[in-house]
Design brief:
The complex is a heterodimer of chains A (479) and B (94). Chain A is globular and about 75 Å long. Chain A is 48% helix and 14% strand. Chain A has a domain of 172 residues: Butyryl-CoA Dehydrogenase, subunit A, domain 3 (Up-down Bundle). Chain A has 479 residues and is α+β, with helices and mostly antiparallel strands. Chain A has a six-stranded mixed sheet, with no helix packed on it. A four-stranded mixed sheet of chain A has the order 5-8-9-12. A two-stranded antiparallel ribbon of chain A has the order 3-4. Chain B is of the alpha/beta class and 94 residues long. Chain B has one domain: Rossmann fold (3-Layer(aba) Sandwich). Chain B has two helices and four strands. Chain B has a four-stranded parallel sheet, covered by helices on one side. In chain B, helix 1 runs parallel beside helix 2. The longest helix of chain B has 13 residues. Chain B is globular, with a radius of gyration of 13 Å. The mean pLDDT of chain B is 90. Classes of the chains: A alpha+beta (479), B alpha/beta (94). The interface between A and B is medium-sized, with 13 and 14 residues.
Chain lengths: 479, 94
């Protein structure tokens, strides 16, 4: 699919989207949402270009056709490594969340777990899933991977909640399918998606079996409602000028997705009350998605480039402390890259044939992602200087009254137009406390699971017995 | 019979460009400009290709060349290799 075809496909969707208390009638052209659509469209554009096709496209293992990697099931370690590289590439190309990895991760996790359920229970989920996968690949669709329930009281299991809808659950079983109710929160790229793939959000016990459900639906299915989340500085996109947006081309979005008694046909159901597999689906999805934070390395490339440029525009690039801060930013960013490459390189084959990342290393990588972008952002703000948050609006620079003073007093390196100095500072502002900070900072903290979720996994997966054995052997302890 | 040398058909293959050390597309444009009508450019998987130019963005050199193994492959990993490739094609023409 070309970017143009993608945009046209979205125009045909009849989504029920709300923002600022009103229904959004034209989602594609809405100025708040549009940059996020541009970011997804970039995944289609890059796949069409020969200089990126080795990363952005791959041969489908089910049809043999060349497909967009975002719809692929990883068939070997090289696929996993290229997925990490694709994240960095796309992050650098857009400077934001491009929203398509979550669907890829949901597809891969389901390819593993549907197979495992079938082996244990004699069900036919994997055949259903493969049929669905062929449909997604054939039409090059964007899938929203929807895992996070609102969760209500965190101390209570799904079935114990005062409101049963705080975790998405089955409310009716029919001959043709099931009816579900609930919601999924923080859904990245939801209104730019053709499909929604729903998964349970936590491991479950028998009492929660009505909540152990996974399925896929068209994003425009009857009963699905989208309520857009706000982002810091979002209404700058409603202003006439471009400069104050920081990144005038691309952005991300999140939405609360409400499922109000939504019908799901059986052929789209991939888990139905097999509660004992909910944890495995969560763990596999989370591991893939923690790897997906390779994208932050690409966004980090942009922020480091912006910081170096700002230093040069300020005439401060030769100061030793500035050089050292740039070194530190690169050190942190490349350390993140080490994590996403290593968890891919150490991946293995599951019984379904799908390759999955090394889960310990994926969790270590994501744990680093919860920290390092914050330090990189702090250093970027340090280098940028306070003007980043005190500079006047673009209109003041263009004003015949004030423009001449701003051009005079906000000049830095005399070889650089003052407006270019403002542009690079606005980009740093965008990435560290504007709309893109949602993706680069807070999403780095909580996306794919909050820091404690990774620490629990690290605790579970670290082989402490082997470490103790090595220590005892070297210290002469013979037990 | 004309003595005009026949253009070399070059199959072009890029790596995926995840973290290139230089502008790969600009380098290829420069090579194309230098060779002019001495080379005809096709995709690497085009069966008419006589020679493959593999443009890697860094020393990892990870472009997938599986479908090109039957052809001579010239790999470049930086701008400094452009001159050598141009000379190589011109040598082939003679």
């Amino acid at each position: 699919m070309t970017p143009q075809q993608y945009e046209e496909s979205l125009r045909k969707l009849k989504l029920e989207v709300y923002m600022f208390g009103k229904r959004v009638e034209n989602v594609v052209d809405d100025p708040i949402i549009r940059p996020s659509m541009n970011a997804v469209a970039k995944t289609y554009e890059m796949a069409q270009r020969p200089e990126y096709e080795d990363i952005m496209t791959v041969k489908s293992h089910i049809t043999g056709k060349r497909i967009n990697r975002f719809t692929h099931i990883h068939q070997n370690v090289d696929d996993l490594v290229k997925k990490s590289k694709m994240g960095r590439l796309m992050g650098r190309a857009t400077g934001c969340c491009f929203q398509r990895c979550v669907g890829m991760d949901a597809l891969n996790a389901l390819s593993i777990v549907t197979y495992d359920i079938d082996k244990a229970k004699g069900t036919e989920y994997n055949q259903r899933f493969l049929k669905y996968l062929a449909f997604v690949q054939e039409h090059d669709l964007v899938c929203d991977g929807a895992m996070t329930d609102p969760k209500g009281n965190r101390a209570l299991a799904p079935h114990q909640q005062a409101d049963p809808d705080l975790f998405l659950h089955v409310v009716e079983e029919r001959k043709e399918g099931i009816v579900v109710r609930g919601a999924k929160a923080h859904q990245t790229g939801a209104v730019n998606s053709h499909e929604i793939i729903v998964m349970p959000t936590i491991a479950m016990r028998a009492e929660d079996k009505d909540y152990a459900v996974s399925f896929a639906l068209p994003s425009e299915a009857k009963g699905i409602v989208y309520i857009m989340g706000r982002q810091s500085c979002d209404t700058r996109k409603l202003e006439a000028g471009q400069l104050d947006r920081g990144n005038p081309f691309f952005g991300g979005h999140e939405a609360l997705v409400v499922f109000e008694n939504v019908f799901v046909p059986w052929e789209r159901v991939f888990m139905y009350k097999e509660y004992e597999f909910a944890g495995s689906l969560v763990e596999n999805f989370a591991s893939y998605h923690r790897q997906s934070y390779a994208c932050k390395v690409g966004v980090g490339d942009v922020l480091i480039g912006a910081s170096q440029t700002a230093a040069e525009y300020n005439g401060a690039e030769r100061a030793s402390h500035v050089k050292d801060k740039i070194i530190e930013m690169n050190h942190l960013n490349e350390t993140l890259y080490c994590g996403c490459i290593s968890c891919a390189s150490e991946g293995h084959k599951e019984p379904s044939g799908t390759y999955v990342v090394d889960k310990l290393l994926a969790n270590v990588h994501k744990q680093n992602v919860t920290r390092f972008p914050y330090e990189i952002a702090r250093l970027a703000q340090d280098i940028a200087g306070g003007l980043m948050v005190t500079m006047p609006a673009e209109e003041d620079f263009k004003s015949p009254t004030t423009g001449k003073w701003l051009d005079k007093y906000y000049a830095g390196n005399c070889d650089v137009p003052t407006l270019n100095r403002m542009r690079i500072l606005r980009l740093i502002e965008n990435l560290t406390l504007g709309t893109a900070a949602v993706g680069y900072l807070t999403e780095s903290m909580h996306g794919a699971g909050s820091p404690q979720a990774q620490r629990i996994m690290i605790s579970r997966l670290a082989n402490m017995a082997e470490k103790k054995k090595a220590a005892k052997k070297l210290s002469g302890i013979d037990e | 019979m004309s003595n005009t040398p026949v253009a070399v058909i070059v199959g072009l293959k890029y790596c995926g460009g995840c973290k290139p050390d230089y502008d790969r597309v600009a380098l290829v444009e420069e090579i194309r400009r230098r060779l002019g009508d001495e080379a005809i450019w096709v995709r690497a998987d085009d069966p008419t290709a006589e020679l493959i130019l593999a443009v890697h963005g860094c020393l990892t050199a990870c472009a997938d060349l599986e479908s090109c193994q039957a052809k001579p492959i010239v790999a470049v990993t930086g701008p400094e290799a452009a001159e050598a490739f141009v000379c190589h094609v011109q040598t082939l023409k003679r």
